[in-house]
Design brief:
- The structure holds 2 protein chains of 2 kinds.
- Chain A is an alpha/beta fold.
- In chain A, helix 2 (about 35-50) runs antiparallel to helix 4.
- The longest helix of chain A has about 70 residues, at about 185-250.
- In chain B, helix 1 (about 10-20) crosses helix 5 (about 105-125).
- By secondary structure, chain B is of the alpha/beta class.
- Chain B starts with a strand and ends with a helix.
- Chain B contains 10 helices and 10 strands.
- Helix content of chain B is about 45%, strand content about 20%.
- The chains are: A alpha/beta, B alpha/beta.
- The interface of A and B includes residues 644 and 779 of A.
């Protein structure tokens, strides 16, 4: 019996060892049960030896005994590791010391035994005392934990473990007492239970871990998706803002406005770069950012960076010192966009954190056969970094000494992106910094060489270039026809404006279907197609366009426009059949360069590029044409009104209605003021506020708003003081409007009054007003106003007109009665 | 009741027709001026015209020309046999018919119902077209009512109401497909109107869009608690308003 149960323990613990080792390898995580299984395995072996079955294996009883003692001696080691894990390293120091003591003791006694000074049995007996103490120590730590309630999830395991130990100890004591207590069967039982409990615990923990991992992963994925979407959503409107602002900068001559526009530009740019940072980070995290090697011009890369940073450095009064090895090859193969990003990040930081002095950029290289190792070095004389802060440098959203550097703007993403990008490029960023005197960042990147022609003295060239840098259109092409397809009106406008100076004719289509219509009617040289459009997206449009038999320009290059600048987008568009790809926000220089490549060369005129082209903004032009239909009236801002009512005709009819209501509005307000009926006053003035705003009479609306609030808050004195001048203004506006509105009415010839007919109209008018049939009422009043009334009736007719404008049936009925009476008198 | 527009010398006609047709049809009289006839047709939207010409002179022919070219309803010409000679050329049109006087009550009634019946058959065939959706606009400011009506008129049937009471009344008469409701109105504010609607079995399913310039948090929260279909701030942006209405009506 004892033999069977011991063998079972042995097999089970062997499975435990194998299983937990496999789990450890799979999850790459420490599995506490592994130690326990080892401990139980050796314990079972020892038990087997104790059970006396060893005689079958070993003839020599001495050897069998020695083995069993050895197994027993080493037993506390895996146990202590197990406990250490289970107790989350709470008593790690003590356990470490305990293990050390035990091991040295075993070692010393072994040496003594081998030297023949003492016998093995004598040694073993002493060590067994130490062994028992060890076990007792472990028991007490567990009891402590149990007592303090720290190991709830392990309490079952721990309890059983202590029982097993107590049994083992009592068995050892029994050994000295010559077998007073028989524990040979109970002990293995206890160990099996222990093993099963521990296995259960381990599984539970692993499942828990797996679940948490999944949750975290999906959360992080959702975050990444959200960031990517968000930044896309934000980029589109910024595109519009920056595009329009570029137009202001180019075309406005007022210095003050240009200054405001410059502020918009810089704020917009920093917003855009922030978004780009976030997008980059989310891409890196989700593994979607790739290094895309391409052929590029090394000197232009450096040139761009120096241009970009040079301006900032100059603004801060810093010197920018550039030293580039003149023998570096000029054309390379690599991801210039990312390289540029890294350098700009480093240089930007250098400028940001330097108050005075110099920012250095040094580029050296060692060329091999077909590749060159470029050593980049960015050094500044700035504030430097404390040594203990260096690890923080690379953490996301961490900013070093945030207290001191509060004024320095930034998100804290730059360095994190830089290091991760360098990782992707197989390089790493090195930092040397002395707090207070400056920092030096350097890294090495390997790039393939396309052309070995040396870049020469870059520094001089850049200086020469910067001196005469100003905005200038590359070319003009008055005969070129370009079609831009985008569902966003502002984007189309931006696009059109960007090309205004080139004199290229730009046609617009608001969607794919419209585009398909237009290419059948007109021949275009280049077509720009937005990708994301509601009805038919860019790719679908392109495909349909290619299938159309009757298209007039089948070979015209089609360029994809998109704000979606994800890695691989370019390749995807090219694969879909686009000729090229332009990312939004559209870079004007980029666009012009692209056009010089795509337009037929005979249509491009490089000589005519000039800045004195007559400047006329289309956006302004459009609303101006709307405005032109409307008379200039002091105090009315048509632009504001047109924001809400886009149709000039519709707006004018609103103005006419407004005009007709002005008198009664003013009268009623005056009456309410006299009666001090603040509730009604508030409602009335509120209505006046809205109606004034809807025709663009902003100042009137503003005063009305003030009065409304004053009335609401019961500030009678304010209301009483402000209302009279408000009414005066109001009536003045009425006078201003009068000629424009009554003019048109007086033009139509008036007929002799046909009284029977008028009497037919009156009940109809009242009925229409009762039913709120505005069209009917308006038609009737129009007829009624068409007669030339004798002097005594005009006031009644005027009253009817007002009542109709006010849709006031009661008032209309009164005036109708008056009119009837007058007609009666006439007869 | 079908509406008939009677064109002729007002003083005589009124007495003559009062007893003849008044009980069966809704009669509207109109003088023999083209401008009047046009206006009245637009206002009354009659189902047919009865025309009493006087002498076949310029004004009468003007009216007949207009009735033939611009007007789509049946036209009954009531005249004497001599007078009829001058209008013979109009009678080729199917819609036109004549009664030669002197005319008695029964004859006139019979002719009218005959002509209207014929017309009904024809219109019944063409009426299967889709009905325009109806929108009720409630606002105490007439200018706002007119403005919104101008905006919506092209695509919807617009009903107007200038007070909460009126709005509820017209809703009981004809249920609109959507209600545009102002908040700040005298007597009964928009919220109260909405609450009344919600308490009513039939009206509670009509979507309500608040259109108001009230933008303080408390009011907005108290209104949105009632779950209106949308909440738009004044002044409404034309496009936004149309889009909202379209989505709500879907």
């Amino acid at each position: 019996m004892e033999l069977v149960i011991t063998l079972t323990t042995l097999v089970l613990s062997a499975f435990g060892v194998i299983g937990s080792t496999a789990l450890r390898l799979h999850y790459n995580k420490k599995i506490a049960m592994e130690y326990l299984a080892w401990a139980i395995f050796s314990c079972a072996l020892w038990n087997l030896a104790k059970a006396g079955s060893m005689q079958f294996l070993f003839e020599n009883e001495m050897a069998s005994f020695n083995l069993s003692v050895l197994l027993l001696l080493f037993l506390p080691l895996p146990f202590s590791f197990y406990l250490d894990e289970v107790q989350r390293g709470r008593y790690r120091k003590e356990y470490r010391m305990m293990r050390a003591v035990l091991l040295t003791a075993i070692g010393i006694f072994f040496v003594l035994h081998l030297a023949g000074i003492r016998t093995f049995v004598e040694n073993a007996t002493y060590i067994l005392v130490l062994w028992t103490l060890t076990i007792l120590f472990m028991c007490s730590t567990m009891a402590l934990d149990l007592f303090r309630g720290r190991i709830k999830e392990y309490s079952l395991v721990a309890g059983t473990l202590m029982l097993v130990w107590l049994m083992a100890i009592s068995r050892e004591l029994g050994y000295f007492n010559r077998g007073a207590v028989k524990t040979g069967t109970i002990l293995p039982f206890g160990m099996i239970i222990l093993l099963l409990l521990a296995a259960g615990n381990t599984f539970h923990e692993l499942l828990d871990m797996e679940r948490k991992k999944q949750e975290a992963l999906s959360a992080s994925e959702a975050k990444g998706r959200f960031l990517a979407n968000m930044s896309h959503e934000i980029r589109t409107p910024i595109n519009a803002v920056l595009g329009m602002n570029t137009m202001i900068l180019r075309e406005c001559t007022d210095a003050q406005i240009r200054e405001y526009a410059m502020d918009i530009q810089s704020a917009g740019q920093s917003l855009l770069s922030l978004i780009n940072d976030i997008l980059d980070l989310s891409k890196i995290e989700s593994g979607k950012l790739d290094i895309i090697p391409e052929e590029y011009d090394f000197s232009s890369l450096i040139h761009d960076i120096v241009n970009m940073i040079g301006v900032k450095a100059k603004d801060k009064g810093l010197a920018l010192d550039l030293s580039v090895d003149e023998n570096l090859p000029s054309r390379l193969f690599g991801d210039d966009i990312r390289l540029r990003q890294i350098l700009v990040n480093l240089m930007n930081n250098a400028v940001k954190y330097t108050e005075k002095g110099t920012v250095f950029l040094r580029i050296r290289g060692t060329a091999a056969d077909d590749s060159v190792s470029l050593d980049f070095e960015v050094e500044d004389t700035g504030i430097g970094i404390k040594e203990e802060d260096l690890p923080k440098l690379f953490a996301e959203f961490e900013r070093i000494e945030s207290e001191r550097n509060r004024k320095v703007e930034g998100t804290g993403l730059g360095m994190s992106i830089t290091t991760q990008l360098l990782d992707l490029m197989g390089s790493r960023l090195n930092v040397e910094s002395e707090y207070g005197t400056g920092s030096r960042f350097y890294f090495t990147v390997k790039q393939k060489i396309i052309s070995k022609e040396p870049i020469g003295n870059l520094k001089e060239r850049i200086h020469a270039n910067a001196a005469n840098y100003s905005y200038q259109t590359l070319f003009t092409a008055p005969n070129a026809q370009v079609l831009v397809v985008d569902d966003n009106e502002v984007n189309r406008k931006v696009f059109r404006n960007l090309l205004k100076k080139t004199k290229v004719t730009v046609d617009e289509a608001a969607g794919g279907l419209e585009c398909l219509e237009m290419v059948r009617k007109k021949e275009y040289d280049v077509i720009f197609l937005d990708h994301m459009m509601p009805d038919l997206d860019g790719i679908e449009t392109l495909h349909r366009m290619k299938d159309l038999p009757d298209i007039l320009c089948p070979s015209a290059p089609v360029v994809a426009l998109t704000a979606n600048a994800v890695a691989g987008a370019r390749e995807r568009y090219l694969a879909e059949g686009f000729h090229s790809f332009l990312s939004k926000p559209i870079d004007p220089d980029h666009l012009e360069k692209l056009l010089t490549n795509l337009l037929p060369s005979e249509k491009i005129d490089y000589s005519g590029a000039q800045e004195t082209a007559p400047i006329e903004d289309d956006a302004a032009g459009e609303s101006r044409s709307c405005e032109e239909q409307l008379p200039q009236i002091d105090g009315i801002d048509w632009k504001y009104a047109l924001l809400y009512t886009k149709d000039a005709e519709l707006l004018w009819s609103t103005v006419e209605d407004f005009y007709r209501l002005m008198e009664t509005d003013a009268d009623q307000l005056e009456q309410q003021l006299r009666e001090a009926d603040w509730k009604q006053f508030q409602i009335k003035v509120h209505a006046m506020k809205s109606s004034a705003a809807s025709v663009g009479a902003l100042s009137l609306s503003g005063i009305a708003k003030m009065l409304e609030y004053a009335a609401r808050d019961g500030k009678a004195d304010v209301v009483e003081k402000v209302t009279p001048p408000f009414l005066e203004e109001w009536r003045q506006m009425q006078e201003l409007l009068k000629p424009y509105i009554e003019d048109g009415e007086e033009n139509s010839p008036k007929r002799e009054p046909d009284y029977p007919m008028i009497r037919q109209y009156l009940p109809l008018l009242l009925d229409a007003l009762e039913q709120m049939d505005v069209d009917g009422a308006d038609a009737i009043i129009e007829q009624l106003l068409g007669y030339a009334y004798p002097e005594n009736m005009t006031s009644a007719v005027k009253g009817l007109e007002q009542a109709t404008a006010n849709l006031d049936a009661g008032q209309a009925a009164e005036w109708a009665q008056v009119l009837e009476r007058k007609i009666e008198e006439e007869r | 009741m079908e509406k008939i527009l009677v064109i002729g010398e007002l003083s005589d006609l009124a007495k003559k027709l009062e007893g003849d047709l008044d009980k069966v049809y809704q009669i509207q009289f109109c003088g023999r001026q083209l401008a009047d006839v046009q206006a009245m047709t637009r206002i009354v939207k009659p189902a047919m015209l009865i025309f009493y010409p006087l002498d076949g002179k310029e004004t009468d022919r003007e009216i007949m020309d207009w009735a033939r070219d611009k007007c789509k309803v049946p036209v009954l010409l009531v005249t004497t046999s001599e007078g009829y000679q001058q209008f013979r050329d109009y009678m080729e049109e199917e819609r036109f018919d004549k009664l030669l006087g002197p005319v008695n009550k029964e004859e006139l009634q019979q002719k009218c119902s005959e002509m209207l019946g014929k017309m009904k058959q024809q219109t019944a065939k063409t009426r299967s077209r889709k009905r325009k959706k109806t929108i009720l606009v409630v606002d105490d400011a007439p200018l706002m009512l007119r403005k919104i009506k101008n905006i919506l008129d092209r695509q919807y049937d617009v009903m107007l109401a200038s007070s909460g009471k009126q709005a509820l009344e017209s809703m009981y008469k004809k249920e609109p497909d959507l209600v545009l409701l102002d908040y700040q109105m005298p007597d009964m504010n928009g919220k109260e109107v909405f609450e009344k609607m919600l308490a009513d079995g039939d009206l509670r399913y009509i979507p309500v869009v608040f259109l108001t310039s009230v933008s303080d948090r408390k009011t907005i929260i108290s209104i949105t608690k009632l779950k209106p279909a949308d909440y738009i701030l004044k002044p409404p942006d034309q496009e936004r308003l149309m889009n909202t209405i379209q989505t709500v009506l879907k």
